[in-house]
């Protein structure tokens, strides 16, 4: 451990207030958080402190220019009570990739990894053991430096908070393939986990919810002919027995679940294709019955089967399958995450 | 005035610390600010309070999902010491247009207008009288409600801060016409003053600054063949004696300066065109000498003449003109703003 990491423990714990049998997603927070400040041109040593409000000047650039990025991870507890992370270095690398695009100074790896493990060790009791639950981990970075000039801030905060959480979606997901709005521009920030990418999705998603859908499937902003991804998930389509997902690009987040699913599918002998998926193709396959499954994949939502999609005022239902890829892949990935099977890929990381 | 607007005065003023002869842009803040909270489904009555830090939970959605919007206005002081706003209702309307796109609840007009005028009357001494200076006004709204679920917050804050300010750019501006990065997607949030639109520009702008430019001129994300706008300015091009600016769209901010300039130019008998401007056309006109002027137009930057533009590793200098449109239009608009001439358009608003 860096001998500079300071830990200030909470005087009392709030854990007895938490109903671990009825956890929603990301709405109660554990006793501690990690805080790291960027000042005078460098990241200062991280501190673990009691979870507490942040005090910021009203002119802090986070309020004005959306200079913020985040990550989403989970800690999983196995039957023996040991805690595990899933490919945490991938989240660290993506955080710095996002940082670069948003003109935020990159964070040293040891601040992230040691800060995270120290925090998790301290709040280990907050990692739920109930099936389907986990400790959602939210690392984020934002501009705390001040000024109304539209330019990068000179001060930043990196924080990790954690939240014992249940499922992101309750049940299967009905999606709307978007024809008007879009999530990301070519040459934009879509591939980064930038705060602004999410706020921009809220209004179109609300419109879809009003029409009876749970989620929007984004298409490219130019033609709306190609499927990109969902709110916080990459999208997979199974046509006959082939599992297809779109290629990542500067508009699409390079999801860790997505690439893990591709690896598992390959190992399982499932034919996979990474290529552009046209809306036309999906609609036609739905009509002929060749479209067997669609699902979203992401850390928060794990693997979320899609029950139906809407496109141009028509809904297309997906069949109920006995041997769905979604079920198989979800079982395989969660078995690895919760340390129920051997980890042949080397993805698990002991806290 | 709404009889609900509460004013809590600062005990001491910080005004004696301010060097009004050497004001930078937006980096010192006046004694008071307006704060308005959205809670339980409604905007509560605004309060004017001493300028002070904000306390927010680390899970407030502003830190995670970029759900924030802002406006930029100025208060101008005339020779008699009276204070003026320029088309403030336009800012109010645009704020609510942005709010809608970002799934933020719209604000009642009287909260904005009465809050603003009360604040300005109280901090009237902060409006500079020095030539070229003004009180920059920053209304902003952001998600203070909490949760890691990527969905709109249930609580928001609307705040107005003010900052006595000098020029946004020092001197003429050298711009780079962007070929790779972009600012906005079709169907995205480019037309809204959403925080995330600005953070996304920082990195490409830094790259341009490293190459010796001050600012990027954004092009469309699909072909990069058409000029859109600059960081916080709309762009005008003069070819021969015609003044041209691009049409607004869902990618481009509908600038108040831009439309005022069009009105003034029409009144001055200057031929104007609102149509797509191709990069090719601008480069060709620069080569033949038909490109007479380029300038940016926005509240912060007023009218900022462009001295040269770079495109595909070549720089194109713009001529020094005796009777430039930029100078004429800048004089006309600032004369109206500072109450130096009659306001035939009805744009001035007395504080
Ligand atoms: C836009 C977007 N796409 C995809 C994903 C899935 O990425 P990962 O599997 O790394 O969680 C996420 C969530 O993290 C996301 O925000
Ligand atoms: C992206 C963008 N374009 C143009 C403008 C100019 O708009 P206005 O003239 O209303 O200030 C601004 C600044 O306000 C802006 O942020």
TrEMBL record, chains A, B:
The keyword Amino-acid biosynthesis applies. InterPro entries: Aminotrans_IV (IPR001544), Aminotrans_IV_CS (IPR018300), Aminotransferase-like (IPR036038), B_amino_transII (IPR005786), BCAT-like_C (IPR043132), BCAT-like_N (IPR043131), BCAT_family (IPR033939). It catalyses: L-valine + 2-oxoglutarate = 3-methyl-2-oxobutanoate + L-glutamate; L-leucine + 2-oxoglutarate = 4-methyl-2-oxopentanoate + L-glutamate; L-isoleucine + 2-oxoglutarate = (S)-3-methyl-2-oxopentanoate + L-glutamate. PROSITE patterns: AA_TRANSFER_CLASS_4 (PS00770). Pfam families: Aminotran_4. It is an enzyme of class 2 (transferase). GO terms for molecular function: L-isoleucine-2-oxoglutarate transaminase activity; L-leucine-2-oxoglutarate transaminase activity; L-valine-2-oxoglutarate transaminase activity. One of its GO terms (biological process) is isoleucine biosynthetic process. Its EC number is 2.6.1.42. Keywords: Amino-acid biosynthesis, Aminotransferase, Branched-chain amino acid biosynthesis, Pyridoxal phosphate, Transferase. Acts on leucine, isoleucine and valine. Belongs to the class-IV pyridoxal-phosphate-dependent aminotransferase family. This is Branched-chain-amino-acid aminotransferase. It comes from Flagellimonas eckloniae.
């Amino acid at each position: 451990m860096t001998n500079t990491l300071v830990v200030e423990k909470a005087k009392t714990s709030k854990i007895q207030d938490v109903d671990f049998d009825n956890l929603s997603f990301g709405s109660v927070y554990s006793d501690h958080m990690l805080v790291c400040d960027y000042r005078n041109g460098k990241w200062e040593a991280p501190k673990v402190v009691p979870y507490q409000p942040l005090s910021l000047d009203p002119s802090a650039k986070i309020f004005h220019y959306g200079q913020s990025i985040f990550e989403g991870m989970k800690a999983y507890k196995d039957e023996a009570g040991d805690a595990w992370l899933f490919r945490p270095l991938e989240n660290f690398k993506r955080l710095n990739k996002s940082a670069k695009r948003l003109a935020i100074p990159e964070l040293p790896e040891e601040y992230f990894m040691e800060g995270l493990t120290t925090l998790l060790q301290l709040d280990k009791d907050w990692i739920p053991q109930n099936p389907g639950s986990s400790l959602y981990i939210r690392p984020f970075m934002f501009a705390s430096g001040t000024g109304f000039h539209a330019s990068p801030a000179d001060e930043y905060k990196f924080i990790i908070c954690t939240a014992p959480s249940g499922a992101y979606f309750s049940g299967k997901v009905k999606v709307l393939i978007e024809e008007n709005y879009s999530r990301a521009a070519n040459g934009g920030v879509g591939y980064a986990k930038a705060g602004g990418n999410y706020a921009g999705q809220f209004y179109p998603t609300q419109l879809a919810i009003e029409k009876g859908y749970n989620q929007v499937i984004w298409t490219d902003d130019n033609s709306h002919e190609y499927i990109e991804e969902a709110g916080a998930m990459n999208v997979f389509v199974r046509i006959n027995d082939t599992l297809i997902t779109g290629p990542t690009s500067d508009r699409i987040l390079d999801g860790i679940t997505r690439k893990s699913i591709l690896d598992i599918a390959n190992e399982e002998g499932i034919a996979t294709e990474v290529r552009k998926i046209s809306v036309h193709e999906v609609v036609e396959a739905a009509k002929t019955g060749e479209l067997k499954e669609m699902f979203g994949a992401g850390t928060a939502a794990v693997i979320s089967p899609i029950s139906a999609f809407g496109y141009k005022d028509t809904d297309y239902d997906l069949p109920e399958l006995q041997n769905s890829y979604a079920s198989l892949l979800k079982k395989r990935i969660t078995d690895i995450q919760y340390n129920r099977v051997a980890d042949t890929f080397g993805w698990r990381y002991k806290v």
